[in-house]
Specification:
heterodimer, B: 115 residues, mainly beta, seven-stranded mixed beta sheet, four-stranded antiparallel beta sheet, 11 strands, globular
């Protein structure tokens, strides 16, 4: 079935380090891909999205490129801040009313 | 400008009791979605409701679970005769129209612990 696989956390980085969180997917068709972020005590927030191959989603310094050939949608940021500490979820949808999520990756950024 | 509210935020129940989880959508939103996150797993879709109607319950366990979204008041996810395996985080999301992640807002979740 359709699924999303994320790298396990926690990912621990120093401030200003480069971030990569890996996400790969399996889907029967051409999904739309998303990254969500959950800050402590809050609900999930849509961070960025891409709806077709080679699209690049970007927001708040984060980027992810829809790679059909590798079925990947890795999240990157050039210089993380302490305020980026959160749980990040990769997700897909196949034109239905539901999202399919990965397990989430906790990011901890230290000063 | 209140977002999606869920209560309680934490709920402890003993096996066999009932759990009622409430979700108040963003004002003006008429579509509600429930997701469950079991330990070490991703969020899994449970049910999609519009006011007074269940649109898609394909992710809902067949027994003990029910959901409603009445004309007035919050959406309720009800779990009867809870078992330890029901321990999870339950997230609600709302949107003003048909499914669109860009207009869908998630609540902070209810953490259910079954003893």
């Amino acid at each position: 079935g359709d699924s999303v696989t994320q790298m396990e956390g926690p990912v621990t980085l120093s401030e200003e380090a480069f971030l990569t969180i890996n996400c790969t997917y399996t889907a029967t068709g051409y999904p739309s891909l998303f990254w969500y972020v959950q800050y402590p005590g809050e609900g999930l927030q849509l961070l960025l999205k891409a709806t077709k191959a080679d699209d690049k989603g970007s927001n708040k310094g984060f980027e992810a490129t829809y790679r059909k050939e590798t079925t990947s949608f890795h999240l990157e940021k050039g210089s993380v801040q302490v305020s980026d500490s959160a749980v990040y979820f990769c997700a897909l949808t196949l034109y239905t009313d539901k999202l399919i999520f990965g397990t989430g990756t906790r990011l901890q950024v230290f000063p | 400008n209140a977002g999606v509210m869920q209560n309680p935020r934490h709920l402890v129940r003993r096996r066999g009791q009932e759990a009622r989880l409430r979700c108040s959508p963003v004002k003006g939103h008429s579509h509600v979605y429930w997701y469950r996150q079991l330990p070490e797993e991703g969020l899994k879709f449970m049910v999609y409701l519009q006011k007074e109607n269940i649109i898609d319950e394909s992710g809902m366990p067949k027994e003990r679970f029910s959901a409603e979204f009445p004309k007035e008041g919050p959406s309720i996810l009800r779990i009867q005769q809870v078992v330890r395996g029901d321990s999870a985080a339950y997230f609600c999301a709302s949107s003003p129209q048909d499914f669109d992640p860009e207009t869908q807002y998630f609540g902070p979740g209810t953490r259910l612990l079954v003893l």
